[in-house]
Specification:
Elements lengths: L6 H15 L3 E2 L12 E2 L4 E2 L8 H9 L8 E4 L6 E4 L2 H14 L2
Length: about 100
């Protein structure tokens, strides 16, 4: 991470980039307001985070066929929810397909 910018500045930049690319909008004060996610589009709501821990993701990408989308699934035992994690570019590709299908 760039030491010259604050976490808030990096988050705002990340949220703006995501909103623009996915044809959505950012919510005001999403990190400080209960019940608001960072970015909202016609198809999804996004909570944007950053981390330096990516070893499992790197392993998945190395083993994945170049013709397929790598997706990392995380299961939460208490809620029994599952998350599917994919690259931003792959998400953007899938959303563009959804927009074409709805045209």
């Amino acid at each position: 991470m760039d030491g010259s910018t604050t976490t808030r500045e990096r988050s705002k930049k990340q949220e703006s980039r995501i909103a623009k690319k996915l044809r959505g909008y950012t919510t005001i004060n999403s990190g400080a307001t209960f019940g608001q996610n960072d970015v909202i589009t016609d198809f999804c709501e996004i909570e944007a985070k950053t981390t330096a821990h990516e070893s499992e993701w790197v392993k998945l990408k190395k083993k994945c066929s170049a013709k397929k989308i790598p997706i990392f699934v995380v299961d939460f035992e208490k809620s029994r929810d599952s998350l599917a994690i994919l690259t931003y570019e792959d998400l953007q590709f899938l959303i563009e397909l959804a927009y074409k299908d709805n045209s």
